[in-house]
Write a structure and sequence with these properties.
membrane; transmembrane; MFS; MFS_trans_sf; MFS transporter; globular; mainly alpha; about 400 residues
Length: about 400
């Protein structure tokens, strides 16, 4: 049993282009993937509570759309700046028990949010949530890869779907609990954070046993599949695609409830239900991207998921309520399949630097989401949310740059 587990882990850290013929029947560590995905769900559910609380916070503190965007910018910027540094550090010195500390930081942010007396404290709460994410995501992504049994896209999709599911259920929980019972009811979600800490303690124990103690801690002699210049160019293209995806998603999700309330006259709770439809569709789409990429390659999935959403994005600002809901579900399904494929593609471009690559891409995604929310919030104050939706509809056309990615070097 120990031998097969070690083989599976070694396969997870060996670049596809340099790997010897690995055992065909290496199995993913499903219990570990399930635990890390569940912890991701809890982590991102608590983050999404901030997003779902925007209408409440706007009324409580008389916020402008620019200030709403600043909340998103704060928690996503703290995460984006720290994640690559955390990933780079843990590539060299793995920290198996850092994950529970990340969840504890998110718990502190949640408690501050529940009892925040001012907008400044709301921003501080958002910063603690961002710090928690900066610790959680790079190491968790590494663990998902180590537990993949060589099925890297599948493992990243399982990990990501937990986060997307948590993001999706946040608005439902906000509608059911926070809207009727007020801001202080957020404190009850601290119980979920405590559960997350317990789960992550178990994952950390597995990680310490199978990664550090088994000797995977030492860096493998990683061979990049392409020349340095090609790798740098490909990483730049992938970052442009991340910008396109997350700037668009920031505008769509941060102001979606306000858009529905303003344009169609929906109640706050009804608007949050529609936000759930979009976010749940994103979770479902995430499941598909990784396994499909394992079968047909990452590049076709990246190409189809970002550029493929452009026609629906362009139609969205002109649709009625029924078609707005339908189009956002399609957009969520298609667009969300990109990230797992992008992340695994980048990890294979830079083998041996899983933590740094994961931190860079999670961090850049968070940063673009935060910057997008802040910039588009100011834009909405100056113009209107409807005008913002018409403007961002062109962003998915940047998916054309996926044509510049080098052809993948497939196994066997």
């Amino acid at each position: 049993m120990t031998t097969s587990a070690t083989a599976a882990l070694d396969a997870g850290d060996t670049p596809a282009s340099a790997a010897p013929p690995a055992p065909k029947k290496a199995k993913p560590a499903f219990r570990v993937l399930g635990a890390i995905s569940s912890a991701h769900m809890i982590n991102d559910m608590m983050q999404s509570l901030i997003l779902a609380m925007y209408p409440i916070l706007k009324g409580e503190f008389s916020l402008t759309f620019g200030q709403i965007g600043l909340i998103t910018l704060t928690y996503q910027l703290t995460a984006s700046l720290l994640q690559p540094l955390v990933g780079l550090f843990t590539d060299r010195r793995p920290q198996p028990y850092s994950l529970p500390f990340g969840m504890a930081s998110t718990l502190i942010g949640l408690m501050l949010l529940a009892f925040a007396p001012s907008f400044g404290v709301v921003l501080l709460a958002a910063a603690f949530v961002g710090i928690g994410s900066s610790i959680f995501h790079p190491e968790s992504s590494r663990i998902a890869r180590l537990a993949s049994g060589g099925q890297h896209g599948f493992a990243q999709s399982v990990f990501q779907v937990g986060g997307n599911t948590g993001t999706a259920i946040g608005p439902l929980l906000a509608a059911a609990i926070i809207v009727p019972f007020g801001q202080k009811s957020v404190a009850w979600f601290g119980l979920a954070a405590l559960l997350g800490i317990v789960l992550l303690l178990q994952v950390s124990r597995w990680y310490a046993t199978h990664h550090v103690a088994a000797g995977v801690r030492k860096q493998v002699a990683a061979i990049a599949p392409y020349p340095r210049k090609v790798v740098i160019g490909a990483i730049a293209v992938l970052l442009v695609l991340i910008f396109s995806k997350y700037f668009y998603v920031a505008g769509l999700s941060s102001f979606y409830t306000f858009y529905l309330i303003e344009r169609f006259g929906l109640s706050v709770q009804s608007a949050q239900l529609h936000l759930f439809f979009f976010l749940f569709a994103s979770a479902v789409g995430t499941v598909l991207g990784g396994p499909v990429g394992d079968r047909i390659g990452r590049k076709p999935v990246i190409w189809a998921s970002i550029l493929g959403v452009a026609p629906f994005a362009l139609l969205l600002p002109h649709a009625n309520l029924f078609w707005t809901t339908t189009l956002t579900i399609v957009i969520g399904l298609v667009l969300s399949s990109a990230f797992s494929a992008i992340l695994v593609y980048a990890q294979e471009l830079m083998p041996g630097k899983v933590g740094m690559v994961s931190g860079l891409f999670f961090g850049f995604a968070f940063g673009m989401g935060g910057l997008g929310a802040a910039v588009l919030g100011l834009f909405a104050d100056w113009t209107s949310i409807a005008f913002v939706y018409k403007t961002i509809a062109y962003l998915p056309l940047l998916g054309l740059v996926a044509a510049l990615l080098p052809k993948e070097k497939r196994k066997g």
